[in-house]
């Protein structure tokens, strides 16, 4: 019953229109060669291409019948075919490499050119020219000393001052007394720099090895601290990025240190106290000083050059001042001429205007020009406009006063209506309030009467109920007493009959016993 798997004919998982298809390709055997697997994959791809339903069952990928979307299965089969072809090519190359003819060729090439065994593809040289950027062993020893000193400083944080001979500033000639916080900070910074240098050395080595290898995948450990197998291109990209980042970090730190040292030597932070012994000048140094020249000769050359530069700068400044003065004078004259021409043109325009208007006529000798008919009309129109404007303003003022009176009258009427409406509303509210008060009093009176009647009815009902309960209790008590007496009478009767029967039996037994005893005697 459960040994054989059954598939329904219809339905979502049936053979007709469902996921369960009985015409799937048989699962490939594990012992098949790559060529046979490729043929099976190609056959399955053709079946997927000709399949019209959305879902299809196949066992090619995982050796187990499964239901896939047709497009997804076709894409996965293409990837599987590419993988099989790549695996076939790799096996063919390995077969050719391990063949006797290939070994013979390699042996002959080794005998002919033994130095090519050490050829490095990254350096493009033989042997490899790569060298570590730092002494890892020395840095590791230095790091251990710093860790030991850092642990001791952390234990002595309660002290005000600590002596240390391990710090880098002490080795460079500085003071050997530190505050605990400053010493811990300096040691921590140096430990971080040593870790960065060691990591840079390891990354540089792995990057060189990655460039030199020809395999598709490499193992990288210097980036994350644990072995990671990635593709060669991705490893080169990641190692190159980390390599560039660490180099930029060290370069920036060295540049800043150099700038600070230069500023310290140049007394930018104040005069530096030197604790080192100075070497005095002896007579043996005179020939060397004479070869280099005296200070006076050097100063003369420098002074002459400086004087020439100063004279050249003074002459240039004087020429510039002269040019500026000439330019300023020219600008002033130009502005003056422009102003003069403006006022002269304005005067000529006004004079021409008065001439064309007829002023200073030879016949009339009037200062003002006679007005023309058109001008008289224009003046009359302006006068009429002013008159009409005055009349309009007067009419507007009258209308405004009338509108103001009307507005005041309407406002008084509105206020009167509002007052009357307010009085009526107040009267209505008072009447309504009084009516509500009367209703409340009347409803209270009626309610109290009804409540009193209801209370009397409930009291009568309670009294009747108590009386009925008392009667029922008395009747039940009398009845139970009567029944008890009857039961007791019946029980006494039965008990007497029982005792009488027992006594009769005892008497019979005694009589029989007595008769038996008489017979013996």
TrEMBL record:
It comes from the Eukaryota. Keywords: Coiled coil. Residues 378-425 form a coiled coil. SMART domains: IQ. This is Uncharacterized protein.
